[in-house]
Amino acid sequence: MLDTSRIKDEEAKLAIDAVAVYLSGMLNAMALSLETYSTTVKAWGNFSVSGGVPTLDDGFGFSSTIVDNGGNGDFTLTFLVPFDSANYGVMVQALQATATDDDSKTHTQTATTVRVLVRTGGAAADVDFNVVVFGVK
Asked: What is the tally of structural domains in the chain?
């Protein structure tokens, strides 16, 4: 609490204490909010693939420049803002109405890029896919 010993008016002391408690609560809430923010989604994207060329249809956090690594379903995505390190989580999912055995995954990841392997039916495939990334930036 604040030192209110020099203030003579008791109501003023109570008001100052109330403001101090309120501000302390607000600061704690802001700190919690920042902590929660560090674990929220930092990038996501819906990608369509036509003729082997992926396009970012919707999302945020990714550059529109996508590198095709020369194989079916093998793409490198670049983040608009780099992560603090390569320690972040990525979920990749192939989108195909008749797909079974979706085992899409990440291949390699750095602070600035993630290489995804899109697979469906047990094989690499140039099909539409989604990516969601969690981590600290």
From this structure: 2
